[in-house]
């Protein structure tokens, strides 16, 4: 493997291991970015079907930002302004920073490795709200030759303490909104968010639908967690989280 293009070995690498899709500073910045299309997710509630619309947020120039509020749970729905998933925040323009501040973020949970954080520094790295919980380290075994599902399983089975730490970082943040991000906002962020939503009682079919091309992969992963550990709550308890921390997490999202 080309060490000059080192990458997270438990999950697919950022595209070409370069700042792409970061925009070149020579390109003009649009003052009115076009909003991404909404995610329309079918859900069943009280015996009736309805469509849950998850609106992407406009944080120029991030490309994969969503507030997970509005998703139904077994006892209600997730509250808006509690949990946001995102790609790397080093892409933010001045307008993007203003949008972040308007969202009243109280914690940034950055899942990237130390190498990634050094190569593409978060603009909030020196902020007391920023917490780095790397799910990958350059010294970890290289499993990049495995399929996506198998890589997810390695992440869940071998790095449970890291995943639990990331979710505890969400749970113990000051009141307000938490952002979870990695480089592209897909794989590492996707695993943490999927487990968080499962813990909160969001239907697994709805969690999977939100992942589009990797829908079956997420369902298989949640099934793996259920079969091997007895469910997400039991998995996190075995990985170092406490009952109080998990209750705080679910209360934060839906309370």
TrEMBL record:
Annotated stretches, region: Disordered: 1-46
Coiled coil: none
A GO molecular-function descriptor: phosphoprotein phosphatase activity
Source species of the chain: Kribbella soli
Record's signal peptide: none
Protein name per its UniProtKB record: Tyrosine-protein phosphatase
Family matches, as InterPro entries: Prot-tyrosine_phosphatase-like (IPR029021), Tyr/Ser_Pase_IphP-type (IPR026893)
SUPFAM superfamilies, per database record: (Phosphotyrosine protein) phosphatases II
Bias (Low complexity): 7-32
One Pfam family cited in the UniProt record for this chain: Y_phosphatase3
């Amino acid at each position: 493997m080309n060490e000059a293009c080192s990458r997270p070995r438990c999950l697919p690498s950022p595209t070409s291991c370069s700042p792409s899709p970061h925009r070149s500073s020579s390109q003009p910045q649009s003052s009115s970015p076009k909003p991404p299309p909404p995610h329309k997710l079918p859900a069943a509630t009280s015996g009736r079907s309805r469509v849950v619309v998850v609106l992407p947020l406009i944080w120029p120039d991030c490309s994969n930002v969503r507030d997970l509020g509005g998703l139904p749970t077994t006892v209600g729905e997730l509250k808006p302004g509690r949990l946001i998933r995102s790609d790397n925040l080093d892409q933010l323009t001045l307008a993007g920073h203003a949008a972040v501040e308007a969202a009243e973020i109280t914690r940034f949970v950055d899942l990237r490795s130390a190498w990634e954080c050094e190569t593409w520094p978060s603009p909030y790295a020196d902020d007391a709200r920023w917490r780095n919980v790397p799910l990958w380290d350059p010294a970890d075994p290289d499993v990049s030759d495995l399929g996506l599902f198998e890589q997810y399983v390695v992440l869940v089975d071998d790095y449970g303490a890291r995943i639990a730490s990331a979710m505890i970082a969400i749970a113990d943040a000051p009141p307000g909104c938490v952002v979870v991000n990695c480089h592209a906002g897909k794989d590492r962020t996707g695993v943490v968010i999927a487990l968080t939503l499962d813990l909160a009682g969001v239907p697994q079919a709805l969690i999977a639908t939100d992942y589009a091309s990797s829908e079956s992969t997420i369902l298989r992963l949640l099934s793996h967690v259920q079969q091997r550990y007895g469910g997400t709550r039991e998995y996190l308890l075995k990985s170092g989280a406490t009952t109080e921390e998990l209750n705080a997490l679910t209360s934060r999202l839906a309370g």
